Amino acid sequence: MNSSPPPSRPPLRSVLLRSRKRTILGFDPQTLIKYFFGSNASVAIIVLVLIMVFLLREGIDFLPTYQRELQTYRRAGLEFCDIIDQPLQRNQALSSSLRQAVSASLETLSKSARDRRDAAFLLKRQVEDKTARPRESLTQALEKTPPAPEQIEVMRRELREASANAAKALSYPAFFNTAEREQLQREFAALTPEAADLPPLLQTLVAEFTAKDREARAKFAPLVQAQEEFEEATEPLQEVVDQIKAKALETKEKAVEFAVLETNRQRLLEAAATETDAKEKASLTKEAAESVSEAVNLEESIKEITGRTAELREQVEKYAVVIEKAAAVLPKDAGTGAARSLVNEVREGIPVHAREMRAAAATLDSWRWDKPVSIFSVIGAFFFGTQWITNSSWQDFFGFVPLLAGSLVIAAIAIVIATPVSVVAAIYTNQFASEREKEIIKPVIEFIQAIPSVVLGFIGISLVGNLIKDVSECSWLQWVPGFPIQERLNMFNAGCLLAFMAVPTMFSLSEDALNNVPRAYIDASDALGATKLQTVFRVIVPAGISGILSAILLGLGRVVGETMVVLLVAGNRIAIPDFGSGLGVIFHPAHTLTGIIAQELGEVSRGSSHWQALFMVGIVLFAISLLVNWCARAVARRFEPHKA
Amino acid sequence: MTPATNPESIPPPVVQVRDMDFCYGTSKALFDINLKVEYHRVTALIGPSGCGKSTLLRCINRMNDRVLSARVTKGEVLVKGKNIHDADVDLTQLRKQVGMVFQKSNPFPKSIYENVAYGLRIHGEKNKSVLDEAVERSLTHAALWEELKDRLNANALALSGGQQQRLCIARAIATVPDVLLMDEPCSALDPISTLKIEELMHQLAHEFTVVIVTHNMQQAVRVSDYTAFLHLGKLVEFAPTEELFTNPREKLTEAYLRGTFS
Known about the structure:
The complex is a heterodimer. Chain A is mostly helical. Helices cover about 75% and strands about 0% of the residues of chain A. In chain A, strands 1-2 form a two-stranded antiparallel ribbon. In chain A, helix 2 (about 30-60) packs across helix 24 (about 610-635) and helix 20 packs antiparallel against helix 21 (about 530-560). Chain A is extended and about 140 Å long. By secondary structure, chain B is α/β, with parallel strands linked by helices. In chain B, helix 4 crosses helix 6 (about 160-175) and helix 6 runs parallel beside helix 7. The longest helix of chain B has 14 residues, at about 130-140. The two termini of chain B are about 25 Å apart. The model of chain B is unreliable at about 1-5 (pLDDT under 50). The interface of A and B includes residues 526, 528, 530 and 542 of A.
C-alpha cells in the first residue's frame, strides 16, 4: 500500500484572506438580498403610515370647516329659530298619538258601517275595472258629435251585459245579507258612465256610515274636541316660527353665496399677483373686481329676527296654555285599551312638552348672535352630536352619536351571539371531537370566511329578515321585548349575520389558544383522576382564557369594521336607537360608521364639509379598530404564564 | 422474580404486575413483566433509555390509556389486589389511589393553594376547612409549608423549579394515594433541588409507597429499597437495592452497572 502524497495546502497567509467576490453596485449580493427582503417587510408599515396620513389630511380640515358652518348657523339666526323649533317637533308625535287614539275610539262604533261602505265601494270599483273597455268606448261614443244613437244603443247593451257578468262573478262579504247582495248586484249591472248619483243602496250605506260616525263623534266628543284643539293650537306659533325661519334661511343663503364669491375673488387676486404676463394680470384683476359682491349685513338681519322675540315668547306661552288646557280636558275614557293608553301617554306628555317649550322660550333672550363658536364646541358637536343630517335645506349637522350607537349595538349583538357558538365549538373540536370530526368541522367553519359579505347581505334581506319577522308574529313569543317587530331590516338581523361572519375568526383563534395549552397540564389533571370535562373546564379553558379573550376581541374588530352586511341589512335609519324601549331596541333599524361612509362618500362633492365629515368618521373607525386590536394583543400577552 | 428477602409479606403487595405484555399498536414494548411493590417502600425502576421503565410506570395508573392503540395484551396489573383493567374499575378512583409526579414540573397556572386543592376539588370536596387542612398537610409533607405558607395565593408558576416539583408532589399526595409514581422527578432539577426531593422521598415512604423511574443509578442507590432493572422491555433483575448494586445476579445487570452500555 503506497501512501498518496498529502494534498497540497495553500500558504498560511492566503487562507485567511477574503476571496474576491462579485459585487453589485458596490454591495455584497448577500447584503442586497437582505435589504430586498427587509424592504418588502417595510412596505406594509409604510402603507399603514400613508393610510393614516391621508385619512388625517382629508379629515382634519373638517373641524375648521364645520366651525365656519356652525358660525354661519348662529350668525344667520338659524340657531335662534331652532331653539323653539326643535322642541316643537314633539308636537307632531303627540298629535299623531292623539289622532290614532281618536280614530281607534271612533272605530268602536263606526267600524262595521265603514267596512260595509268601503266594501261596497270596493266591489263597485271592481265591476268598473272589469268593464273598463266597453265603458270607455261608450263614453267616447257619447261625446262624439253628432251622436250615433244606434251605435250607442249597442254599446249600452254590451256594457250592461259585461256589468251584469262582472257583478255576478263578485264575491260578496258576509256582512251583506241576501237581499242586499241581490240589490248590489242589480245596481252594479245597471251602472252607466253618465250617472252622476250613486246607486240607492250605496247611498244608504254612505248615510249609514255618516250617521254612525256622527254618533261616535258625539259619544267621544271631548276626545275629538281635545284633539282638534291640540292640532289648532300649534298654528299661530308655527306661523311666527316659519316666518323667522324663512328670514334666517334667506340671510344664510346670502352669506354662503357671499363667502363663495369672496373666496373666488381672493383666488383670482392671488393668481393675478403671481401672473407675470401684464395682459393676463389685468384681465384677472378685472375679473376679481367684477365679482365683488355686497356683504350681508348680518347684524341688521339678526335684529329683524330677534326683534320678534317678544312675539315669539308670547305665542309660545299661549300655545303652552292651550295645550295644557287640552290636556286637562282630555277624557279618561277612550274607545279601546290601546286608545286609552295612547291618551294617557299624551296626557303625561303634554305638560312635559309645555315645560320644554317654556324653558326654550326663556333662553331666547340670552342667545347672542355674535358669540363665537369655539373649536371645543365643534369637537363636542361632532363627537356628542345626536343628529346626522345632510343635504338639508335648513342646516347640515354632523353628529357622530347615532352612527356610533348603531355600530356598537350591532357589534354587541354579534359578539353576544358569536362568542358562545365559536368558543363552545372550539372546545368541542379541540377536546372531544374525533379526528374524522375535526376534519369536517374545521374546514367547514373556516369556509364561512370565504363567503362574500354581499352574499350574506342578500341572505339577510331575503331570508333572515322575513324569518325574524314571521317568528316575531308568533302569538306565544309575544313576551319577547320588541315583538312583533316593525322592520325586517334591523340591528338584530345585521348582528346575526355579523356573528356568522365573526365565527370563523373567533373559532380558529380560540382553537389555537386551546391547542397552545401545554400537554403537561392535561397530564397532571388526568393523573389526579379528573374526568375529561373537569380537565377541560378547570384546567384547559382557564389556561387558554387569554387566547380565547383575544380571539373574541379580534372577532369584535372584524365585526366593527364590516361594511357590506350592515349597509344592506341594518335598515339605515340615521337616528339614535330608542333605548327607552329596553331590550327591544335591537329590533330597530340603525345606521353605522362603516355603512355611512360606504353609502355617502360616492355622492358628496370632494372637499365639502360632508366629505370631510365622512373622513372624520373614517379616522374614528380606524382608531377604534386600532384600539380593539391593541387590546387583543395586550390580553394575549397577559395571563400567558406557560409561555414565559 | 420476587425479591429474595422479606418472605413474610402477608398482606398482598400494593402493586403487583403479573406476566404482563404491553403493546403500542403492533410493536411490543414490555415482555412478560412480573413485579411486586411492597407497602411503604421505595422501588426504583432503572435501565437504559427506551427500555420501557416509564411505560411500566404508566401501566400502574393506566396513563397509557390515552395513547391510541396502546394496551396490555397479556397478564394483569393488580393494585391492592384488584385487577385495574377490570370493567368495574373506576379510572378516577384508581388515579386517586395512585398518584403521579412527572419528569417536568407541571403546576397549573393557578395559585399554590388551588394547585394543591385541585385533586380534592375534582373529587367533590367543597368544605373549606377540609381543603385548608389538606393543603397544609400536603405542603408540610412536601417540605414546602414553611416556605410558602404566607403566599398561598401566589401563582404557582412564580416558584423556582425545585419548588414547583415539590408542589407537584404536594398536589399528588393531597388526595392521600396509596402509591406515588414518580417519573424521573429530578431530571430537570439542579443538584440542590434534587437533594431536597431525595430527602423528601425518604419521608414520603413512611406514608406512601413510592415507585420511581430514574436514569441516575446513584439516585436509585440513595433513595430506593428495591430496584428493578429493565432492558429492552424485559425485567432483567428485581432485588433489594443493596443486593442488586453490590451483587447482581445477572450478567446484563452487572454490565449495565459497570457502565459497559447505557
